[in-house]
Design brief:
By secondary structure, the protein is of the alpha/beta class. The chain contains 15 helices and 15 strands. Helix 1 packs across helix 5, helix 7 runs parallel beside helix 8 and helix 12 crosses helix 13.
């Protein structure tokens, strides 16, 4: 992406004023997209020279008044400009040639759907710019070719040849969007690596595209053990890029759905349902190890008065600010959730009893120091906290004990914590 700003600079080479205006209208509405539009190859080269080839992507028609069919696209690719063809010319031989040179896509101007597809493609390229992809394959030629095609899609490829290297990379860099898995040097056809990757990360976290060896029936095995899709060799660059884009988009859709199902919309904390999904295994592990374990219920004092006096927008801001403060103050091992309304739940594994008082004094001080002076000069918010430290048989029982302690804190004056 262009380093000068956060913009994504696009060179549009289109001699039809009508088509150029349509492109400008559709792509100009995309966040970060910044368009330079020209009508000839000569003007395109002037723009490239003036900006020292600093374009993130070029969108080019094949039929221009001052260039042979496809020559402008070839020149752009020779200059290592990520290029998309958007043309009324359908030429299979030229299309194959351009894909071999590194073309991102070849879109025919054959219907209104084409411009919609173009808009989605550019949006994808902007959003996925430099996202990480793992490439695991022992065949150097195939591995290098896959890396090249991924980089054509503006993705950042991390290549390795063995299962061990792949799993190490996944551990070191947890932000991979996709793993592209073929035969590895670990005496493996890649199926065991797919199984291991899927055991570590769900489809909402990592998409897996398998690349079975030619003339085998391994595709079903890959899918059975966790792959989302497969590429049967031999495959064309066009098929490769379509399947990679589809896999990443599906992973992101699953991630969005999971976030909507497990996160509180206002605070982005875990919701009640997700809290139990995450917390119950931690609770069970603590019981098996006979480890220390605490749970706190946190409630905003006089929250109804805040809503009644200042309105629900201010109430939402208070909830969001306190959630953010709690999240910043908590230990990395703690689990924090919004239970509903003005109530939060904090699960704290392996917290020594003697540290509880110090920890919650810090929480109270941090919340008291939140600046709400723009709402009213003397506007401050406090919380009451009930903390359960006595071992119970279930998270529900600990929540009940913490609720009882919270009730005592409320009844005895608020803005305090009580430990049970």
């Amino acid at each position: 992406m262009n380093n000068e700003t956060s913009s994504f600079r696009i060179l549009v080479v289109e001699d039809s004023q009508f088509q150029s205006k349509i492109i400008q209208y559709c792509l100009g509405s995309i966040d970060q997209a910044l368009l330079d539009c020209v009508a000839s190859q000569a003007a395109a080269l002037e723009c490239l020279d003036a900006r020292d080839n600093e374009y993130d992507i070029a969108l080019v028609d094949l039929n221009l008044p001052d260039a042979e069919v496809g020559e402008c696209a070839r020149e752009l690719l020779r200059r290592n400009i990520s290029t998309v063809v958007f043309s009324g010319i359908v030429n299979p031989e030229l299309k194959t040639e351009l894909f071999q040179l590194g073309l991102i896509d070849y879109i025919a101007k054959d219907s209104p759907v084409a411009i919609e597809y173009l808009q989605k493609l550019i949006t994808f390229l902007i959003q996925q710019n430099n996202k990480h992809v793992l490439v695991a394959n022992s065949n150097t030629r195939i591995r290098n070719e896959q890396v090249r095609m991924l980089e054509n899609l503006m993705l950042s490829a991390w290549a390795c040849s063995s299962d061990e290297e792949a799993l190490k990379l996944i551990e070191q860099k947890k932000e991979f969007s996709l793993a592209l898995v073929g035969q590895t040097s670990s005496n493996s056809d890649g199926i065991e690596l797919v199984r291991a990757l899927r055991a570590k990360q769900k489809s909402s976290q990592l998409a897996i595209v398998a690349v079975p060896e030619p003339n085998t029936d391994q595709a079903a095995q890959y899918l059975r053990y966790g792959a989302n899709d497969f590429l049967q060799q031999p495959y064309s660059p066009e098929e490769f890029q379509c399947r990679i884009r589809n896999a990443i988009q599906m992973q992101q859709q699953l991630h969005s759905l999971e976030t909507a199902a497990t996160r509180d919309f206002l605070t982005n904390l875990l919701n009640r349902r997700a809290f139990f999904e995450v917390g119950e295994p931690i609770f069970a592990q603590a019981q098996r190890k006979n480890a220390k374990f605490s749970l706190a219920m946190i409630d905003i004092d006089h929250f109804k008065n805040v809503n009644d006096t200042y309105g629900h927008d201010v109430g939402d801001r208070v909830i969001h600010s306190i959630a953010q403060t709690l999240n910043e103050q908590r230990r990395s091992s703690d689990v924090l959730a919004r239970f509903g309304g003005e109530e939060f739940c904090l699960l704290m594994p392996e917290l020594e009893i003697e540290n509880v008082t110090t920890l919650f004094k810090r929480y109270q001080e941090a919340i008291a120091n939140i600046d709400f002076s723009d709402i009213a000069p003397d506007f401050k918010v406090t919380v009451s906290i009930g903390i359960a430290t006595t071992p119970c048989h279930s998270p529900d029982q600990m929540i009940k004990a913490a609720d009882e302690a919270l009730y005592e804190a409320k009844e005895s004056g608020r803005n305090k914590f009580i430990i049970k």
